[in-house]
Design goal:
The structure is a homodimer.
Chain A (H helix, E strand, L loop, with lengths): L1 H18 L2 H7 L7 E3 L6 E2 L1 H12 L7 E11 L2 E10 L2 E12 L2 E11 L1 H9 L10
Helix pairs in contact in A: 1-2
Chain lengths: 136, 136
Amino acid sequence: MSKSAIIAANAAFYAAFATGDVAAMERLWADEDGISCIHPGWPGIIGRATVMGSWRDILENPNRPQIACAEPHAIVEGDSGRVLCIEIVDGTALAATNHFRRIGNAWLLVHHQSSPIAQIVEQAHDDPTGPSRRIH
Amino acid sequence: MSKSAIIAANAAFYAAFATGDVAAMERLWADEDGISCIHPGWPGIIGRATVMGSWRDILENPNRPQIACAEPHAIVEGDSGRVLCIEIVDGTALAATNHFRRIGNAWLLVHHQSSPIAQIVEQAHDDPTGPSRRIH
């Protein structure tokens, strides 16, 4: 039950992203100054105003990339949980984690981090068997 | 007090990394199958055996990169906490988050994610005033 709820919250996050729904995005994040975010390629940002401002900038950009979430995997530990997934952004794969906290009945985002894994995609083209080792 | 304890746990993680201390690294992570990790450039991995195996591979590699942690910033929410920081790996900057859970008296790692932010370093060379916007 907890896992399906957090997977649903994760799906709502990507739906808000895909449709550019700023109001939904603001509701999906915890309303507190401890929230944080690391967008791909950029340093971390902390604080409700800064994090939500970054999402407004992204969602209000008419040229923002298409995004889809694949392979979500939920891990729940009491009132904390996270979903690891693959983001497909304009055909490029990123490894993302969305961290949630259960506040009342809702799983709300407290941290998002998305990391490029483009070399995996490139390697997969060269080697159809895929990478044999995940660390280097 | 909580913040200083989690900052100390974060420092111990980077000390184990820098010195290649596999036994210390194994003690610093929660002993459970819910732990997870996203190393830079790679998809997420989940599970105690898989995550600790990845760290053994990294730490036992005599050619592993030098690493240092800068600008650690702790956020504590009850028994969960995280430290956002900059990793300097062979002169390249990465944005990292280390997620901890308080188990007994110890803050133990449950998730680590490190993301390349090399374009920031490059941009900083071109523009000494630094990037004016952190999102694109």
